[in-house]
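hey m, so remember when u said the tokens were messed up on ur end? i reran from scratch. heres the input so u can diff it against urs
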Amino acid sequence: MTKSSSAKPSLSSPDTEKSTSSPLVRSETKPKASSVSRMKTVKSESWMVSATPIGKYWHITVQGIAGATQARSSREIEPMARDFISITKDLVPGEIAIELERQLPASVSQHLERAYRLRATAENARKEAAEEWRAAALELKASGMTVRHIGDALGISHQRAQQLIKG
């Protein structure tokens, strides 16, 4: 069986130039300067983005850029902001760093602040309640009760009573 040398079709297009290399090395194509994207790549610059809910949409503004865009959901805010910056400033979207600030109405912010305070209070109360359950179980154990009887007295399982005693 003999090897036949078949010529492979050229993959070059009018917008590409073949690089010259040895015949044993596969040739690579390089795009001509005219087909290269004219977008700038700037990684060090960070853009301040502000998103405010208005009706069913998020209104997105970028500090230093006139105009605005919008997003349908909070997941769309960052991609839409990057696209907006990319289009207006001729930058590559994937290399745009943004700092996002969601601006909620004052009444919503007040509700959230109160919810966070209540959550912290509830967490503290839960910890204190656990300490009291443990103190009660330890006191009954010190009086000579069995773990099973402690569970019955406190209205919990004997396994839970054992956990409270062991701490």
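this time it looks ok to me. Residues 1-37 have pLDDT under 50 and may be disordered. if urs says something different then somethings off w ur setup not the seq
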